[in-house]
Automatic annotation (TrEMBL):
Protein name: Transporter
Membrane-spanning segments: 30-53, 59-81, 102-130, 136-163, 232-253, 312-330, 336-354, 382-404, 416-433, 454-480, 492-513
Signal peptide: none
Span list, region Disordered: 268-291
Keyword set, alphabetical order: Membrane, Transmembrane, Transmembrane helix
């Protein structure tokens, strides 16, 4: 079947998939319409903003960087959001009598239908208007927009085809869940980048743009700037780079499609040796205490490594807990006390301890017959958390202190971090028993429908309570820093904060144990809801 005959069919198929998906439920339709409105509104604002840059001295640097980031977004989109477009999975077409080249053309055309391509088109048009001067530049801009748009779509398709086996596996689902980490880290980088630009000006982008102007698809937009400046030879080279990259992506995409259509799925073929190796113990149990404490600690640590949602939460907390203090120290705007942010981010992991078990919590519930059993269970979970949080919080505090060169305040910062961590362990254990909620295993939601209020009370209420519990150590820190001879005694904050945090965590676990033993049926019902 020729591409001319296949392409209209695939375009109609894409429209049918969109239409039928919206018919599944009113909630899905409302979510899609809402996201479409916000995306188009943001695209319109970006278009207006880029047009407003026209004539600015650094407009070319801004648009080149924006298009480069846009291309990166298209590259990672299939990895982090594999379920966003049903047509990204070419294995659904393996039974159809289609040849790779007509299939590539049809899929490429169908991929231009959607909110993402429209958003990309608006940004590319605004970029061209921002840098184009003269009729020749606008003519080249039309070619540049077409090449850049096709390359973005082809890039997403090639990445999806190359990783389709991964995206359908458990590791692929883990990768998709970790998209929250990328968003969180990206937001912090954008925040600090915006602060730096606000103080230094857009001229800071020029060195980066000088490199990215040779990287497709940004090179296509840079060609428009080159024509505006009369550098026609440079423009031809930059357009050729984008066109060459587009052709290369289409070739790679075609080859992956051919392999997918003709070869078996090796991801389902596991050798006996591999299966035995996966079932073998990692030796972690030999390093932990014996009895129930060690068993519970090992189970909790395995959750961190194997459960997608738990892993995503931990990795995100570890990354943000390091990025915020270090970036502030790097900019010279922070203090050693902001290192407590790391302890706070990791202390949140103690909240809703039973929710991560979901319906499997009934196995744990069968082993709890008294407050003593509940206490050992909670204590072991807290110890597993401390195995990671204590050295990590110490490391972040030392690194932040070293970057600021304020070693005199290191004991204070460590004491406050340990006190905060102990307070969050205490309040986290209690709220885990009093306000448990379910964490859905599928999708991107972290709270089951109808339990958002419980999640807010558990996390934010517990954090407020932890802050109140840390008030004595905070007051002592302030008093020692304002008193005349207090600087000679600030080192006491390290042992005082450590001891205070240990006492708080022990008392919190003792108070939470009777609650846990008494409310086992309610906890089981709450965490199994999702």
């Amino acid at each position: 079947m020729s591409a001319a005959a296949v392409t209209p069919v695939f375009v109609r198929l894409k429209l049918s998939l969109l239409r039928n998906g919206l018919r599944q439920s009113g909630g899905r339709k409302a979510a899609y319409i809402t996201s479409a409105v916000f995306a188009l509104l943001f695209a319109a604002l970006q278009l207006i903003g880029l047009i407003a840059l026209r004539g600015h001295a650094h407009a070319a640097s801004v648009v080149v960087l924006a298009v480069a980031v846009l291309g990166l977004g298209w590259a990672v989109m299939p990895l982090f959001f594999p379920s966003g477009d049903e047509t990204l999975d070419p294995t659904r077409l393996v039974m159809l009598p289609l040849r790779p080249r007509p299939l590539v053309r049809a899929l490429l055309t169908a991929s231009l239908v959607g909110i993402g391509p429209l958003f990309t088109l608006c940004l590319l048009i605004g970029s061209v208007v921002a840098v184009a001067r003269g009729g020749a530049a606008f003519v080249v801009g039309v070619v540049a927009v077409a090449l850049a748009l096709l390359m973005c779509v082809a890039l997403a398709r090639a990445v999806a085809a190359a990783n389709v086996r991964l995206l359908a596996s458990r590791k692929g689902r883990d990768l998709a869940v970790l998209s929250g980490l990328v968003i969180a880290i990206g937001a912090q980088i954008v925040n600090f980048g915006a602060q730096r630009l606000g103080t230094s000006g857009l001229g800071e982008l020029d060195p980066v743009a000088d490199v990215l102007q040779w990287v497709p698809p940004a090179s296509a937009i840079s060609a428009v700037q080159a024509v505006s400046e009369g550098s026609y030879g440079l423009a031809v080279v930059q357009l050729a780079l984008t066109a060459g990259a587009l052709v290369a992506l289409l070739v790679v995409w075609s080859r992956h499609l051919t392999r997918l259509m003709t070869s078996p799925d090796e991801s389902t073929l596991t050798s006996t040796e591999t299966a035995v190796r996966e079932r073998s113990s990692t030796g972690l149990g030999r390093l932990l205490p014996s009895g129930r404490t060690g068993t519970v600690m090992e189970r909790s640590l395995r959750y961190v490594w194997r459960d997608p949602k738990t892993k995503a939460a931990w990795v995100t907390s570890l990354a943000i807990g390091l990025i915020v203090p270090v970036f502030n120290a790097w900019q010279g705007t922070g203090s050693v006390y902001i290192a407590c942010f790391a302890a706070g981010m990791l202390g949140i992991m103690m909240y809703n301890q039973f929710g991560q078990d979901t319906s499997a919590f009934w196995i744990v519930a069968l082993t709890i017959s008294s407050p003593r059993d509940a206490y050992v269970e909670l204590r072991a979970r807290a110890l597993a958390l401390l195995l990671i949080t204590l050295p990590y919080a110490t490391l972040v505090t030392v690194v932040t202190t070293a970057m600021l060169g304020d070693w005199r305040r290191l004991p204070e910062a460590l004491g406050l971090s340990f006190a905060l961590l102990g307070a969050m362990l205490a309040t986290g254990a209690w709220t885990s028993a009093r306000f448990p909620y379910s964490i859905p295993q599928e999708g991107y939601k972290n709270v089951a429908p109808g339990q958002a209020g419980l999640a807010w009370i558990s996390i934010f209420g517990g954090m407020v309570a932890a802050s109140v519990l840390c008030a004595p150590v905070i007051a002592l820190t302030i008093w020692l820093n304002v008193s005349a001879r207090g600087d000679d005694w600030t080192w006491l904050l390290l042992p005082v904060g450590s001891a205070y945090g240990a006492v708080l965590s022990a008392v919190g676990l003792r108070l939470a144990a009777p609650q846990t033993a008494r409310r086992l049926p309610e906890i089981l019902a709450a965490v199994s809801k999702g």
